[in-house]
Amino acid sequence: MIEVLLLPLLVAMAIGLTGRWPNLREAISLLGGVALFVMVLGLYQSPPQPITLEAPFPGLTVGFAAEPLGLLFALVASALWPITALYAVGYMRGHGEKNQTRFFACFALAMSAVMGIAFAQDMLTLFFFYELLTLATYPLVTHAGTDAARQGGRVYLGVLLLTSIGLLLFAMLGIFQQAGTLTFTPGGVFGSGHSPIMLSVLLVMFVMGIGKAAMMPFHRWLPAAMVAPTPVSALLHAVAVVKAGVFTVLKGVVYLFGLETVSGLPITPWLLGLAGFSIIAASVVAMRQDNLKKRLAYSTVSQLGYITAAALLATPLGIAAGGLQIAAHALGKITLFFCAGAILVAAHKSRVSELDGLGRQMPWTMAAFFIASLSIIGLPPTGGAWGKWLLLNASIDSTQWMLVAVLALSTLLNVAYLLPIPVRAFLGRSDEPQHGGEAPWPVLVALLLTAIGTLVLFWLPQPLLALGEMAGGVQG
């Protein structure tokens, strides 16, 4: 299991050493991504025994374990790494980006941190890799080196470090003080006799301290980071950062607090209400964004609220829904960002109001955008339909009618801010002459692969759904 952490580190070193030979550098990135996915697939087929490296203090462990939620997250992230690397080759060259060696090396470092988060056996280990992921992705956010990029990077780093050190770290200390351990445990680490008020405070600090989940009001880093190149946006939204956030929420609810504890706390309905507010408010803001990447960024804030809400429902079906939604959103949103980057490279357009008639110039790209939009909305035949369906059923089973109403309204808002984009691209008329065609082939192949992935997930959800069901069903 340690090898899945070491491989991306070795890839990062090899990329640094081969920076003067771009073809070799990019081949290493691609092959490293494929190799990592194969290794994670091996762990899925035959999970190894947990590894405990050391116990620095009584009750604390540092180690790794391949539990179901971690396997699900690692499978999704490792599968998307080589596809994103392929996309980045075409985008970075087609857009004439500088510092490409640093980009690919930091991307590999980020993947090492993701694997550490996925397979952490305890919250202390996860926290270490959580912070490492923030630091590894900071150079990617500020990649352009402009004033806007540096400002976006300051917001990115400031919000994520403020929440994790100011809230999440203290939540961990409180959990350790109350339970005497931070090791992820089926059913949670709390026994009977703990104060509901104290546990409520810890749950609030834990959930709000995970800034990468982008729960309002700690969401500003996400749209601020859109100054980065599009492959970085794809990394932030689909492969690594935000998924690390909502994965940590799910894992904490299942293995630290426990479903029974969370469902009985007086603060849980209020946190569900905040998640619902984040879903609706971010969707409303997305509708007002003419910049395509910013519209997609606020869409991500909204969609992450689905997964946080699924965790806070604190039911086995809710956990299964949250796990499957991680995969569905990853495939759908990475496709949308891939398409946004393709439009920028091939047509030099970045605003929704500029896309009229673009479907005649870039039919494959806009078709992929349409498919991914259906997945984000939650419509068949795309993988997003299952995640939203399961979440709706979990909400009904828990009699959380407010959340049912939120899901219905947010679906309509998803339609309102996503579907007009491909509609105007295919049916709109533009007075501008259409030049060129699709983006470079690596970009086009990557976005078609992820679009196809959203369709495949609709017909074959069971392998990933089973992992979510296993995680949710370990209670008791």
Automatic annotation (TrEMBL):
Name its cellular compartments: Cell membrane; Membrane
All residue ranges annotated as the NADH:quinone oxidoreductase/Mrp antiporter transmembrane domain in the record? 120-412
Question: How would you describe this protein's topology in the membrane?
Answer: Multi-pass membrane protein
Q: Which UniProt keywords apply?
A: Cell membrane, Membrane, Transmembrane, Transmembrane helix
Any Pfam family the entry gives: Proton_antipo_M
Q: Which GO terms describe its cellular component?
A: plasma membrane
State which residue ranges cross the membrane: 6-22, 27-44, 64-89, 101-120, 126-143, 155-176, 196-215, 235-258, 270-287, 296-320, 326-347, 367-389, 401-420, 441-460
Q: Does the keyword Transferase apply?
A: no
Principal location listed in the UniProt entry: membrane
Question: What InterPro entries does this protein's entry cite?
Answer: CPA3_Na-H_Antiporter_D, ND/Mrp_TM
Recorded family membership:
Belongs to the CPA3 antiporters (TC 2.A.63) subunit D family.
This protein is called Multisubunit sodium/proton antiporter, MrpD subunit
Q: Which domain of life is it from?
A: Bacteria
Key word Cell membrane present: yes
